[in-house]
Amino acid sequence: MGPVRAYAANSHANTLTDINSDRLSIVTNLQSSSKSSSNVQVSFFAVYDGYNGTGCAEYLRDNVHICLSKDDHFPEQMEEALMASLKKVEVDYLKLAEKKGESCGSSALVVVIVSRPSLKAPAKCYVACVGNSRAVLSRSCGSKIDQLSVDHSPQTDR
Question: Which CATH number characterizes residue 67's domain?
């Protein structure tokens, strides 16, 4: 079991088009595919909000967590692993989209929670956001809400 005991996910259709282009990826105990890291527990959550089709969001849903688990920095240097994995998946998808003649895209919001139970240290939460999806953390039965991400767009330098 990973560090997360409970979670919820919600997705709904666009009110104008009645089409849901969101894709979710939840892996509650993501393991490194290249090395043994039994003292580390990793939970992976992602929302991909596709636009102009679902091809990109579906590709991200199926590949980001796998690419992350194969990264040399995973799980010890999660920031580097997340950045490298998102860049690699973007490059790979753009090549595939060009071959297929697709012109869709997606925002990406990834939350990775890493705990080391043997050290009895608090879990760490890493958030990667490309686009306008938002992550919040609810604590104390919903009485405390923390904003975990900031919208990212071509018009901002975030």
Answer: 3.60.40.10
Number of domains the chain is built from: 1
Tokens 């991400």 map to which residue? 149
Predicted TM-score of the model (pTM): 0.86
- 122 is a domain residue: yes
- C-alpha 157: how far from its chain's center? 21
Q: In the sheet where 41-51 sits, what is the strand order?
A: 22-27, 41-51, 105-115, 124-130
The residue segments making up the domain with residue 47 are 22-147
Residues in CB range of 83: below 8 A, 6 or more apart? 128
Could you tell me if 136 and 146 are in contact, meaning their C-beta atoms sit under 8 angstroms apart? yes
Closest CA to 126 of 108, 114, 118, 141: 114
Span 109-158, pLDDT tens digits: 999 999 988 888 888 999 999 888 888 888 788 889 989 888 776 665 54
